[in-house]
Amino acid sequence: MSNPIARTLLRVPGAKSLINKLAEPYRNLAGYRQVGLRHDDLIDTLNPVVTKAVSRLPMREKHDRVYRHRRAMQCSLAQTILPKEEWTKPEEDVPYLQPYIDEIIRENAERAELDSLVRAK
Amino acid sequence: MFARSKIARGIPQCCTKIAPQSRGLAAQASSPFHYTVAEAGGVKTAARDDGAPTTSLAVVVRGGSRYQSAPGAAHGLAQFAFKNTEKRSALRLTRETELLGAQFSSSHSRENIVLRAKFLREDLPYYTEAIADVLTKTRYRPYEFAEEVAPVLARDIKAFEHSPVQIALENAHNIAFHNGLGNRLLAQSHKFLHDNSEKCEIIPGYAKQVYQKGNIAVIASGAPSAELEKWTKEHFADVPVGKGDISSAKTKYFGGENRFYTDSGNALVIAFPGSQGGPKAKAEFQILAYLLSGESATKWNAGTSLLAQAVGQHIGLKAVARHTAYSDAGLLTITIEGPRETLGKGAEAVVATLNKLNTVKEEDVKRAIARAKFDVLSAAEDRSVGLELVGQSLISSGEVPQVAATVKALEAVTVDAVKAAAKTLVEGRATFSVAGDLHYLPFASDIGLKC
């Protein structure tokens, strides 16, 4: 979790379970699950960090991601949603891309830090 | 103005830093190549301390291409060294090494994978830890293979494919030894790089097979043995116990002929079975290689070696003989490269020279012995050249090679021994490998070679 506001909020006792209670219905209402997408499919790929993260996905994940995008696009063109059994189930909606993004952000931060390093003595 | 006392105080300080630590100069002169062998927490170590301000550290792993479980595993694993570990990232290691003014590298041969570092003497703990981390904590992420390792493998393969000499030598090894030592040194082709997910199981799998306590040796040149033992014991504790899950059948020599088309030049290799390395080595094969040589010791001439004389009349042609001793076999190779039109004639002259070895003169053998001795001693003196051989011998026999014994064996070679060795070569089955424009290049029978 990289957002500082979210981090502070989560430290409040009981906040996490409350947010989770609200989050699940919100995700269902957002509509992406009805066209078979996962939450990480919605992350904007115009960002170079995300582009790199997508390139690091295992081959299988990459193919599945393209398939989900095309299916969702088709739904959008046809002005329809998928039959209910093809909706993304909550347990399938895992953050498969976010760990890669976090890692690249860490790498970039480390690079920036090391590029201005001086020897402590 | 400087206070005189300040300068005077400064000098002894910097001198004490560089001065030899425990041993006096006289002791060093008597055994300059002496390695102290020890065992630290199940890992074999060897160290010699000449008191110089820098240290050369090598971790030798018995896991070269002859032992590899899949084509390219050794090459891939060697290039995966010093990448991201659980403790520190590859970038951090690089930047910290820059700050310490040190160098690190990794390479592989047919026998070993070698991880090396050269640094100022006081950084020994840092680099023993860094190399131990490579063995135990490398992450082997598939995308790292695709982003960092695969391009290096591709570059190595490309360089190999554009060198007819390398191709001919590789093919010569393959037909001489078939499997094991005949395995291809590098990854097979660019195809190795396509399916990353599979390769990323091969490489960490091979790492588990070879990165084991009984299968590695830690060698330092320019560090006190006690220090090396202490840090090895501390940092190499996590390396799994074992003698390495590797197998390579005892090498057998086959020989034969191989022709390979390439448009990047022309080369030709004539090879014969040589002598294995280690204590059972037959020095006459080494002397034979120096006798044929083909390389000049002085500038601006071709030299007076037998091969230089043989191909001297063909412009642009170069013939070089070399004896490579592996742990259980050896290969005496003669590499000839040059323009395709004259390569055949040059090879014919080389074979004629080999057939005339029974009339070799004593002074030529003496000259060859002198050069062989010089090369052995200067390699033993060098801080980083000899480490792989020391490690290899330490892993297999628990002893370090004795330079004095090697030199003594070289000195003891007689003209008759050289003639006898030459006779076995000429009468035995040769290995003949050609790479280049096959329309012009000769067959073995054209140049009078049996194979």
TrEMBL record, chain A:
InterPro entries: QCR7, QCR7_sf. SUPFAM superfamilies: 14 kDa protein of cytochrome bc1 complex (Ubiquinol-cytochrome c reductase). Keywords: Electron transport, Membrane, Mitochondrion, Mitochondrion inner membrane, Respiratory chain, Transport. Its main location: mitochondrion. One of its GO terms (biological process) is mitochondrial electron transport, ubiquinol to cytochrome c. It is a peripheral membrane protein. The keyword Transport applies. Transmembrane segments: none annotated. Pfam families: UCR_14kD. One of its GO terms (cellular component) is mitochondrial inner membrane. It is found in: Mitochondrion inner membrane. Belongs to the UQCRB/QCR7 family. This is Complex III subunit 7. It comes from Ascodesmis nigricans.
Automatic annotation (TrEMBL), chain B:
Its main location: mitochondrion. It is found in: Mitochondrion inner membrane. It holds the Pfam family Peptidase_M16_C. Residues 47-186 form the Peptidase M16 N-terminal domain. GO terms for cellular component: mitochondrial inner membrane. Residues 206-370 form the Peptidase M16 C-terminal domain. Coiled coil: none annotated. InterPro entries: Metalloenz_LuxS/M16, MPP/UQCRC_Complex, Pept_M16_N, Peptidase_M16_C. Keywords: Electron transport, Hydrolase, Membrane, Mitochondrion, Mitochondrion inner membrane, Respiratory chain, Transit peptide, Transport. SUPFAM superfamilies: LuxS/MPP-like metallohydrolase (SSF63411). It is a peripheral membrane protein. GO terms for molecular function: hydrolase activity; metal ion binding. Belongs to the peptidase M16 family. UQCRC2/QCR2 subfamily. This is Cytochrome b-c1 complex subunit 2, mitochondrial. The lineage of its organism: Eukaryota, Fungi, Dikarya, Ascomycota, Pezizomycotina.
